[in-house]
Design a protein that fits this description.
The chain is α/β, with parallel strands linked by helices. Helices cover 37% and strands 23% of the residues. It is globular and about 45 Å long. Bound molecules: adenosine-5'-triphosphate and magnesium ion. Magnesium ion binds next to α2.
Length: 266
């Protein structure tokens, strides 16, 4: 029988890990032996040129894409063979590079609808110390709280199709938060945002991490990445070419040659 993990071991353990993930599409290696770690209470960056394999790695983590090799662990548990909904119940949530919102629903309803995971996800909720199925008024209250937290209250009753793309990106984040995740994967969330929207968004990410959430941020806005991330992994042609803090990454010759030299870091 295995002994229970010590408190220190649990605290040091990443909330999300990939170990040696490889994804092949025919003869093309989209992700090549990639190991990354995402810690609770911090924002971890995942950057690299177009086609580097970032979205494919996210798809593998969430269970939409089967890896050719390697493992995915959530809070130390191997979930490589688990269905996406089971990973969601373990606290994994994401947003999509191409927005996946209900355009003809209001901002409020787009967020609220994600609360349904608690109705179908008894195990997830009860297993984390919750009281089980939430009531309608709890969902309403939680939706209001998230609208406030993400700065969307003023557009809550507008259809998503009527708000700017930059704010629709935040709706996706709020909707993901409605599932009460422990780890959140964001795929280019600042794309389409104005400078002011990105400033507010950076503050939101820092606040969410301070509350204990583990965030993995895929983003081409390098000033944003350098500002909010404590640790960054860099992919190029499917391989991880560097991992480190923002200063290490910005001064890494291989990263500058492959990516940063072609992007703007203010
Ligand atoms: N379903 C698929 N079938 C075949 N090839 C794919 C598939 N999905 C992705 N690819 C290829 O895998 C590689 C990685 O793509 P991916 O979308 O993961 O890159 P990315 O880092 O997210 O790029 P971007 O910054 O442009 O979003 C690319 O060469 C892409 O063309
Ligand atoms: Mg992508």
């Amino acid at each position: 029988m295995s002994s229970p993990d010590s408190e220190a071991a649990v605290a040091a353990r990443p909330i999300l890990e990939t170990r040696g993930i490889t994804v092949r599409f025919g003869g093309h290696v989209a992700v090549n032996d990639v190991s990354i770690a995402v810690r609770a209470g911090a924002v971890t960056g995942l950057i690299g040129p177009n086609g580097a394999g970032k979205t494919t790695l996210f798809n593998t983590v969430t269970g939409l894409q089967k890896p050719t090799a390697g493992r995915v662990l959530i809070d130390g548990e191997d979930v490589t063979r688990k269905a996406p909904y089971k990973r969601a119940r373990k606290g994994l949530a994401r947003t999509f590079q191409r927005l996946e919102l209900f355009l003809s629903l209001s901002v409020r309803d787009n967020i609220r609808v994600a609360g349904d995971i608690h109705h179908t996800g008894l195990v997830h909720h009860a297993g984390r110390g919750g009281a089980g199925v939430r009531h309608r008024r709890d969902l309403d209250a939680e939706t209001d709280r998230l609208l406030e937290l993400t700065g969307l209250t003023d557009v809550a009753d507008q259809d998503v199709s009527d708000i700017p793309t930059g704010r629709a990106r935040v709706v996706e984040v709020a909707r993901a938060l409605m599932t009460d995740p422990r780890v959140l994967l964001l795929d280019e969330p600042a794309s389409g945002q104005t400078e002011k929207e990105t400033e507010d968004f950076a503050e939101l990410l820092v606040r969410l991490a301070a509350d204990g959430l583990g965030i993995c941020l895929v983003e081409h806005d390098l000033p944003l990445v350098m500002k909010v991330c404590s640790h960054i992994h860099v992919l190029d042609y499917g391989s991880c070419i560097a991992s480190g803090d923002p200063a290490q990454i910005q001064n890494d010759p291989a990263v500058v040659a492959a990516y940063i030299g072609t992007e703007e870091v203010a």
